[in-house]
Every structure is written in C-alpha cells, then in structure tokens.
Amino acid sequence: MPNTLVEESLFSIIHCYHQYAARGGDVETLSLEELKALLMDNVPHFMDTLGRKEPYYIAELFRTADKNKDNQICFDEFLYILGKLVKDYHLRYHRQLCAHYSAQHNLY
C-alpha cells in the first residue's frame, strides 16, 4: 500500500530538515542561517504574503524556538516552529474562507 499524503508530507518535512541541517556545523541542528534558508526556499509564498520574510521575524522565531539557548535548532525545537507555521496557515485558511463566504452572501 502506498504512503498516504500525510505520511509523504511528514517524510518530506523530516528530509527537508536534515537537508538544511547538513549544510554546515552540526548535521543534527539548524543554525539561524540554515533556518532562514529552509523557510525562504520551502515556504516562500507564506513568508512573503504574511510579511514573515523580514529578518526580525525569523530571528525572533529562532530565539523563541531555541529553548536550550544553544544558538541551534534541534529537531524538537523545529517542531515548535512547524507548529507556529501550521497555526498561521490555519488562521489564514479561515480568513480566506470567511472572506469568500462574506463575498458570496454580500456581507461586506
């Protein structure tokens, strides 16, 4: 039986994390520059449309996720970042859904 879409997505996220972590330094963690490259390369539309590509956003995201303050993002800390991205995407989805519904029903 082939993998489901969610299983493929999870594998892709893990693979992506390790691909960027292996660029330099510790191959099991992301530096700020590696995280920035991962986000800008792999979620560019999200980063751009919500103003998330500003350097302060990525630096603050990194600082908040770096729970042990070692200036590296381990996979568990990366999961925190993914959680924030998924929450933002979910909120964006609801806003678009509400806007579509309101436009269809002349609620503006």
From TrEMBL:
InterPro entries: EF-hand-dom_pair, EF_Hand_1_Ca_BS, EF_hand_dom, S-100_dom, S100_Ca-bd_sub. One of its GO terms (cellular component) is cytoplasm. One of its GO terms (biological process) is inflammatory response. It comes from the Eukaryota. It holds the Pfam family EF-hand_1. GO terms for molecular function: calcium ion binding; calcium-dependent protein binding; chemoattractant activity; transition metal ion binding. The keyword Calcium applies. CDD domains: S-100. Keywords: Calcium, Metal-binding. Residues 58-88 form the EF-hand domain. This is Protein S100-A15A-like.
